[in-house]
Amino acid sequence: MRVAVTPEEIGLVGCWQVIAVRRESCDLATAKERDEIGYYASSLTLAQYDDAGIGALIRGHWSAIENGTHYRRDVTLGEDACRTADRTGAEVLASLRNLANGLYEIERDQERTQVDSLRSWCQQQTFSTAWSLLGRST
């Protein structure tokens, strides 16, 4: 369901529509079905995309997230396996993972590394090389 709104009506400057997406899923282990609704705010006008186009954009967005940053953090950097119980420590580790991922992306985008995976890139880094990247990447 799509509803045209003004930014003033919902307090989001530049927002021209709110999109509600119904998701149905089933937990394979318990066979329990789940039904939820996700909401999206968009600056796209109703005329720019039809329902199928909006759906494709949303699926593409989540696919990029799951196959990009989250995959790297979960699989490559072992975030899910980390059992840090202290909230501050967990936040620090998440920040360091984000920093490593960001530095790798910058190095790769600017073609300053030939390494094709974050894991390999991280294994090559020392404090000195990472520190020099911080100054060079800004």
Task: Give a description of the structure.
It is a single chain. The protein has 138 residues and is an alpha+beta fold. The protein folds into 2 domains: 2-59, no CATH class; 71-137, no CATH class. The chain is 51% helix and 17% strand. The protein is built from 6 helices and 3 strands, in the order βαββααααα. The protein has helices spanning 7-10, 51-67, 69-76, 87-109, 118-124, 127-137; strands at residues 2-4, 17-26, 33-42. A 3-stranded antiparallel sheet has the order 1-2-3, with no helix packed on it. Strand 2 (17-26) and strand 3 (33-42) form a beta hairpin. Helix 2 runs parallel beside helix 3. It is extended and about 55 Å long.
Strand segment tally: 3
Instruction: Report how far apart the termini are.
Output: 42 Å
What is the subunit organization of this protein? Answer: single chain
Which bin fits the share of residues in helices?
40-55%
Question: Structural class per helix/strand content?
Answer: alpha+beta
Return residue spans where pLDDT drops below 50 for at least 5 consecutive residues. Answer: none
Anisotropy-based shape: extended
Number of helices: 6
